[in-house]
Amino acid sequence: MSEVESFFKSAFSVDNVIFGFDGGDLKVLLIQRGAAPFRGKWALPGDLVYPNEDLDTAAERVLEQLTGLRGVYLEQVRTFGAVDRHPLGRVITIAYFSLIKVSDFALTPASFAQSAHWHSISDVGELAFDHNEILDICLQRLQRKVRNAPVGFELLPQKFTLTELQQLYESVLNLPKNKGLDKRNFRKKILSMNVLVECEEMQEGVAHRPAKLYQFDRERYDQFVAEGFSFDI
Questions:
Q1: Crossing angle, helix 162-172 and helix 183-192, to 10 degrees?
Q2: pLDDT digit string (tens) for 131-149?
Q3: Residue spans of alpha helices (H) in 151-201
Q4: What residue ranges in 34-187 does DSSP mark as E strands?
Q5: Cα–Cα distance, 32 to 117 (Å, whole number)
Q6: Domain over 5-145 is classified CATH 3.90.79.10
Q7: What CATH fold (topology level) applies to the domain 162-227?
Q8: pLDDT, tens digit, for every residue of 4-34?
């Protein structure tokens, strides 16, 4: 083998970090591997890229094959290329991430995924390969993203309270229950952005004092998505 030929002996893979929001809890979608290496271990939904396949197509294909999820917007985050990250040889992986509403998707694991399950971020143990590192990097990206672009339109009910919106941000930022965002500052900041419309309705069927309901101003929300902002919370 010539020196030049040795450069063409690496494989490429994609790994998907799918964050889900469900009932005030931030979760990540993991599969239990049914094939070596790391048989029986939990891992991110990932696999090798076909020789005739581009990266984005591979990420979508792998996610659907292993979990049944399709139509998920995937954002490329970073490349991981440690020489020894895969026990069978040199594999360079490209990580993608997304944030979705858990209740909108049904999991149907297949291929070498024995099962697929949503895990709370706080309960993720030791994963296969270097997937803990990949998960940490993608979580950091998500936490930066919520400070520069709005989240919530697809994750909350059509009408929601300011408390529910704050809980979403606290969940994404992975804040301890006893160290949440300052309630007054959060509400002042979010209301000053004029991205919310106050409904002429209050909560119903709650044991505590009913709170006002809000919904997103879609035009204003889309403007922030396109242009970004600084949400210093």
A1: 100
A2: 999 999 999 999 998 888 8
A3: 162-172, 183-192
A4: 42-43, 46-48, 75-80, 91-101, 113-120
A5: 8
A6: yes
A7: Arc Repressor Mutant, subunit A (1.10.10)
A8: 877 778 899 999 999 999 877 899 999 999 9
